[in-house]
């Protein structure tokens, strides 16, 4: 009959994992189970049960116990716990009980599904073809980072797209559907729904595949275009999420050090650097729009070089916009987001205004390129002024016009002069962001006209009317921004603002023609089912 002797283990349950506690109480050493003494001491087997190890009746720490006792039996199999009681109630249930308790169908291999799911095939139809045509006609000057010949080879059937290229094409479709108003047979509602379908197709495909570990520049662009699409769909937080996703993927791809990457050819280096610059611009813009934090702290390098076969004005246009946002360094971002006034803040804001008031050369550029630069310039002037206003630097007695209450009037007047030289489509293709810039200028103009205690020179009736009409060029802008301004104008009745401005609250040109809208809905049938073709 085996003899046993007690081995006391110094053990603090608070520092022991459930697994360690289970080993101490339920494991066996050889054929002799560990038992408990009435004093709470563990009783260890002796003699052959510890394979000749001689242990004195001494107190052991847990580490010593594990090293001298448990380790000697590591090769032995621990007894199987009897857990049949836990599943006894399932023994007589239906065979599909796992399916009933799982959120996934039994046919899905949860562990391997990202690698085994068959990716959907990119389908070419009238919507995808028109989306690509509209992108390279109107949107490429804004995002000059895609090689047209590569995309055209996919649409022509010359080659099959990669998974990343399929997602990029779906994001292009979504982007053009919500930003370019050149879909005569589709209503605004149907375009938004279709755009969401393309975004969903892209996201579902990504979820079914390990796109993060094998990210490419196409994945970065797809996330950026999805972010812009969601911004136009009025999903600001979702837009910000995908913008940060694009920035993160960009770091994985190596856009931050593309200039020193010997594995990239000269054309790839230019594209990578342009993508980085666009992410910088977009993130800075989102920071100003919604006070989101920035992660790209310093402006990246942007070469002043054209791609093969590219119009000569594309690179100067992107560089001009990039230089505007490069003025918004971290000291300004801090003043804008935190409203913190440092000793040199006033000087810094005054210098910014001086830079932003200087004329920008846009000679030879298209209307789309000019609109992007010039409207942004006026908007940034207003943002710097609003920063000064929040910091208490604006005064009615200042001799510096950039710190006066009437400065928004000067900005709005400059903007209207710019809008007179631009076709509506050249503004519209930039999406909702450029309309929000105009809206903020118009709103500040109304405040200046309403609250000013001095007589403002000039007739600003046409200035305000021009801004309202420009904002009406986009159905989404008309629905959001024009209605807000009209309501504000209507509420200004009886205040210092002249009554003639109040009449602009009912400008007939700002309203959609119902018959035209109904005809558009009837003709949209030809495009229905485009995604399924």
TrEMBL record:
Main subcellular localisation: nucleus
Chain spans, region Disordered: 513-533
UniProt keyword terms in alphabetical order: DNA-binding, Metal-binding, Nucleus, Transcription, Transcription regulation, Zinc
Bias-annotated ranges (Polar residues): 517-526
A GO biological-process term: DNA-templated transcription
Subcellular location: Nucleus
Molecular function in Gene Ontology: DNA binding; zinc ion binding
GO cellular-component term (any): nucleus
Pfam families per record: Fungal_trans (PF04082)
Protein name: Xylanolytic transcriptional activator regulatory domain-containing protein
């Amino acid at each position: 009959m085996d003899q046993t002797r007690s081995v006391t283990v110094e053990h603090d349950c608070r520092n022991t994992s459930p697994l360690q506690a289970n080993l101490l109480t339920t494991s066996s050493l050889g054929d002799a189970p560990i038992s408990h003494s009435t004093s709470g001491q563990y009783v260890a087997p002796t003699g052959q049960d510890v394979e000749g190890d001689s242990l004195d009746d001494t107190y052991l720490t847990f580490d010593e116990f594990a090293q001298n006792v448990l380790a000697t039996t590591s090769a032995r199999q621990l007894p199987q716990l009897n857990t049949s009681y836990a599943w006894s109630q399932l023994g007589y249930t239906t065979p599909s009980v796992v399916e009933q308790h799982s959120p996934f169908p039994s046919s899905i291999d949860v562990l391997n599904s990202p690698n085994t799911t068959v990716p959907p095939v990119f389908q070419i139809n009238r919507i995808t073809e028109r989306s690509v045509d509209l992108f390279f006609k109107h949107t490429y000057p804004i995002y000059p980072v895609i090689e047209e010949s590569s995309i055209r080879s996919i649409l022509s059937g010359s080659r099959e797209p990669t998974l990343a290229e399929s997602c990029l094409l779906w994001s292009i479709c979504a982007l053009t559907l919500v930003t370019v108003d050149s879909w005569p047979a589709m209503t605004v509602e149907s375009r938004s729904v279709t755009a969401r379908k393309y975004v969903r197709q892209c996201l579902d495909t990504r979820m079914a595949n390990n796109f993060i570990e094998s990210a490419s520049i196409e994945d970065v662009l797809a996330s950026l275009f999805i972010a812009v699409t969601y911004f136009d769909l009025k999903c600001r937080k979702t837009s910000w999420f995908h913008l940060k996703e694009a920035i993160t993927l960009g770091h994985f791809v190596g856009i931050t050090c593309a200039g020193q990457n010997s594995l990239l050819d000269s054309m790839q280096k230019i594209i990578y650097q342009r993508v980085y610059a666009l992410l910088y611009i977009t993130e800075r813009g989102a920071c100003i729009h919604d006070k989101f934090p920035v992660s790209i702290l310093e402006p990246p390098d942007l070469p002043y070089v054209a791609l093969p076969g590219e119009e000569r004005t594309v690179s100067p246009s992107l560089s001009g916009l990039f230089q505007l946002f490069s003025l918004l360094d971290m000291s300004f971002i801090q003043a804008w987001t935190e409203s913190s006034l440092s000793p040199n803040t006033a000087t810094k804001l005054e210098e910014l205004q001086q830079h932003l008031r200087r004329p920008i050369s846009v000679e030879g550029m298209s209307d789309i390129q000019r609109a992007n630069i010039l409207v942004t310039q006026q908007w940034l002037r207003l943002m710097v002024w609003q920063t000064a206003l929040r910091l208490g630097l604006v005064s009615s007695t200042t001799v510096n016009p950039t710190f006066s209450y009437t400065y928004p009037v000067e900005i709005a007047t400059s903007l209207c002069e710019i809008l007179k030289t631009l076709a509506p489509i050249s503004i519209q293709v930039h999406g909702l962001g450029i309309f929000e810039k105009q809206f903020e200028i118009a709103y500040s103009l109304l405040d200046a006209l309403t609250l000013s205690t001095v007589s403002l020179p000039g007739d600003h009736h046409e200035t305000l009317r021009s801004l309202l009409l420009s904002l009406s060029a986009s159905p989404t802008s008309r629905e959001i921004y024009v209605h807000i301004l009209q309501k504000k104008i209507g509420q200004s009745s009886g205040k210092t603002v002249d009554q003639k401005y109040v009449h602009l609250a009912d400008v007939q040109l700002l309203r959609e023609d119902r018959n035209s809208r109904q005809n558009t809905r009837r003709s949209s049938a030809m495009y229905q089912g485009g995604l399924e073709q």
